[in-house]
Design brief:
28% of the residues lie in helices and 28% in strands. The chain is globular and about 55 Å long. It is built from six helices and ten strands. By secondary structure, the chain is α+β, with helices and mostly antiparallel strands. It has a six-stranded antiparallel beta sheet with strand order 2-3-1-4-5-6, with helices on both faces. The chain starts with a strand and ends with a strand. The protein has one domain: Api92-like domains (Alpha-Beta Plaits).
């Protein structure tokens, strides 16, 4: 199950709107934004209940690791999927603020996209092709520590894992030793050994 990093960015200079959003997200909870259905005497673990939650939130679980990284960027994590219905509820409540909602899977370069909204309406939705240059750059923006693990391949114009830096790091930290031979095998995307 991949964790999704989500960012809501505000495009406003109105301090009262910024303060209102900060207050709204102080105890950030999907249940508060889009209450789950009544269980009707059934256990909250039933399939119909889970499906209703998924429909209302876009994911089955409450957000984790939420917080403001600056005045205009609110970050939080979700399990398995970006919470598009939650974003739409926030957009409905704050319909006079321009937003950008970006998301990226912890599987760097996969399941990345952006929604833009203004005046209470979604103005654009872009789901980047998995492992495309734009998907990687979105992932790096939302998970900055990962950009150092990848490098741009000028021929394919996309990113790939930076194996040379990994080998150098392993060598510097003494994992490769003179008395013990370590074999490094590189594979291409099809699983074939690269010589």
């Amino acid at each position: 199950m991949a964790t999704i990093r989500n960012r809501i960015r505000l495009y406003t200079r109105d301090k009262s709107k910024i303060d209102e959003l900060h207050s709204f997200t102080e105890h950030f909870s999907f249940e508060q934004i889009a209450p789950p259905p009544k269980a009707d005497g059934k256990a909250k673990t039933s399939c119909s209940y889970d499906n209703a939650i998924l429909e209302r939130w876009g994911t089955r679980d409450e957000p984790t690791n939420s917080g403001w990284v600056n005045d205009i960027d609110f970050i939080f994590d979700t399990n398995t999927a970006p919470p598009i219905p939650i974003f739409l509820k926030i957009l409905e409540k704050f319909n006079d603020v321009r937003f950008e909602f970006k998301f990226s899977s912890e599987d760097i370069g996969k399941n990345c996209g952006v929604l833009n909204a203004a005046n209470g309406k979604v103005t654009s939705v872009i789901k980047f092709p998995d492992y495309s240059k734009l998907a990687y750059e979105t992932a790096f923006e939302l998970r900055p520590h990962t950009q150092y693990e990848h490098k741009l391949n000028a021929i394919t114009n996309t990113y790939e894992y930076n194996i040379e830096d990994i080998v150098e790091c392993v060598q510097e930290n003494g994992v490769f030793s003179e008395d013990r031979q370590t074999e490094l095998i590189l594979l291409d995307a099809n699983g074939n050994e690269v010589l």
